[in-house]
Design a protein that fits this description.
With 479 residues, the protein is of the alpha/beta class. 29% of the residues lie in helices and 25% in strands. It has helices at residues 2-17, 48-51, 62-69, 124-137, 158-168, 186-190, 196-210, 238-249, 276-297, 326-338, 365-376, 444-448, and strands at residues 21-28, 34-35, 41-46, 74-79, 86-89, 120-123, 139-145, 150-151, 154-155, 175-179, 222-227, 255-260, 263-264, 302-308, 311-312, 343-346, 377-385, 392-399, 405-411, 417-421, 430-435, 452-454, 457-459, 463-469. The strands form 5 sheets. Strands 1, 2, 17, 18, 19, 20, 21, 22, 23 and 24 form a 10-stranded mixed sheet that branches. A hairpin with a 2-residue loop joins β8 (150-151) and β9. α8 (238-249) packs parallel to α9 (276-297) and α9 packs parallel to α10 (326-338). The longest helix has 22 residues, at 276-297. The radius of gyration is 23 Å and the shape is globular.
Length: 479
């Protein structure tokens, strides 16, 4: 017996020396922390793709449609800097890439000097392609209108009404609307500015116009899409802009929206994807936006994150579409839900180094993580606590199945972590999926086949875990 004890002691000593630790996760499923929309994880297409006549994206491609349906229900946000150059042309015609834009299919180096780019048209055919695709795959369209269609300092709404007139006569399902993109940094791209009070009045006008259309009685108005400040833009003060806007035009909104990126995608390295400072900075930003929105407009006002990824400027070459990008994305999903952000839009479904589909229209690891989250994770959110540091991060929701619970998270340490559950879950069997960089996913069956039954598990260094508890009688909130 003494030899066995000595062997066990040495084993534990060696593991401790190399950093191994055990944690206990406690899920407070007796209290719902927040509740998100069924479309919580959603996606975008950048308006820039319309300038490129979709830039290689084929809406009729059966694989593309199948990949999109895997993410339903979702909202498809079509917006971006180019939205403020777009005019709808209510006629069918031959679509060409804008003469002022050199067609660019390099996913990372497509930056444009927007100050020298002229406006461009979206044709009726392109609207049909977009709206029909969204309807076919179970997505709801969120379309960003041109806020720079102005006269005497005010938004005219005339071109928007052309689109409303046309779209309202076509049966394309519900459409939600935005007005403008990142208004707090308009001077950087367009050398023009709109003060927040004026923009607030513009949104009130948009709301009035939309309500005139029977087809859009269920449409939501979402804005103003302020963006997280960048270090080289000292004049950008997004929270100050957001506060002034909400005070002037917040009553027009069904959801308050904002954008977030962690770093400059053209300068980031692999270390940035596991840097705890980046993880924690988003949590603080999310807290601030949510608290200020609810202070000004009340507790029931929805907050949406309508454009987000890891690195701005198109993402990070050779990194944003690989396994390492899953950590920031999964954490953002967990933090957003905990903070009460009801919907989060991944930039983007296609195009850019951060696209869920690569230039060959093939799924990336970040796509499969998004599908896994969509399949398993429900709308009610719970708090998860543990007895370890910030490199171990876990979140919990009701599962998508009745009386089920899902716990998901990551181990960012360079050593393994043993995971147990506390309280009533301590002796309940579950199924767990562990994902490390060396596991190649080519289809969802590759994920399903890796779930194993257990009552505890070990997470390797730099790994992700999804845990499914089924038929939990005691979890009243998930019934």
């Amino acid at each position: 017996m003494s030899r066995l004890f000595l062997a066990l002691f040495l084993f534990l000593l060696i593991r401790e020396k190399y950093g191994y630790t055990n944690i206990t996760l406690t899920v407070n499923y007796e209290k719902i922390l927040a509740e998100v929309r069924k479309e919580f994880l959603s996606v975008s297409l950048d308006t820039h793709l319309i300038q490129l006549n979709w830039g290689g994206l084929n809406f009729e491609n059966q694989r593309v449609q199948r990949y999109a349906r895997n993410l339903a229900p979702a909202i498809l946000r079509v917006g971006g800097t180019s939205a403020d150059s777009l005019y709808f042309k209510p006629a069918f015609g031959k679509e060409l890439a804008s003469k002022n834009i050199l067609p660019c299919y390099d996913p990372c180096n497509c930056d444009m000097d927007y100050k020298t780019v002229e406006t461009f048209n979206m044709t009726a055919r392109q609207w049909h392609q977009l709206a029909n695709f969204a309807q076919r795959v179970g997505w709801t369209l969120l379309f960003d209108l041109n806020v720079l269609d102005r006269h005497n300092g005010s938004w005219t709404g005339k071109n928007a009404e052309l689109l409303f007139d046309y779209a309202s006569r076509k049966s394309v399902g519900p459409v939600y609307w935005q007005l403008g993109n990142e208004p707090n940094i308009l001077p950087h791209f367009y050398n023009r500015s709109i003060n927040p009070s004026t923009l607030g009045r513009d949104f009130l006008k948009l709301s009035t116009i939309v309500k005139k259309y029977k087809a859009f009685q269920q449409s939501l108005i979402v804005g103003p899409d302020v963006t997280h400040p960048k270090q080289d833009m000292n004049s950008s003060k997004p929270m100050k802009y957001l506060r002034a806007f909400l005070q002037a035009g917040g009553e027009a909104l069904d959801a308050v929206s904002w954008h977030h990126y962690y770093f400059d995608g053209r300068q980031a390295t692999a270390d940035d994807f596991v840097n705890i400072t980046h993880f924690d900075s988003f949590k603080e930003q999310a807290k601030l936006v949510c608290s200020e929105t609810r202070r000004i407009l009340g507790q029931k006002k929805s907050v949406w994150l309508t454009e987000t990824s890891d690195g701005y400027g198109g993402g990070v070459r050779n990194l944003s579409q690989t396994f390492i990008a899953n950590f920031l994305w999964l954490d953002k999903l967990g933090v957003s839900a905990q903070q009460g952000i009801e919907l989060i839009v991944r930039q983007s479904f296609y195009h850019g180094c951060y696209g869920l589909l690569n230039p060959n229209l093939e799924p990336t690891p970040v796509y499969w993580l998004s599908v896994l989250h969509k399949r398993l994770v429900g709308t009610q959110v719970f708090n998860v606590s543990h007895n370890s540091g910030s490199k171990i991060r876990f979140y919990s929701h009701c599962g998508n199945r009745k009386s089920s619970l899902v716990v998901f998270g990551m181990n960012l340490n360079n050593f393994s972590v043993g995971v147990n559950f506390g309280k009533e879950l301590a002796k309940v069997k579950f199924r767990v999926f562990i994902w490390t960089e060396d596991l190649v996913i080519k289809g969802f069956k590759d994920i399903q086949n890796k779930f194993v039954k257990d009552i505890s598990f070990e997470m390797p260094p730099k790994s992700i875990a999804f845990v499914k508890f089924r038929k939990l009688v005691g979890v009243q909130a998930c019934k």
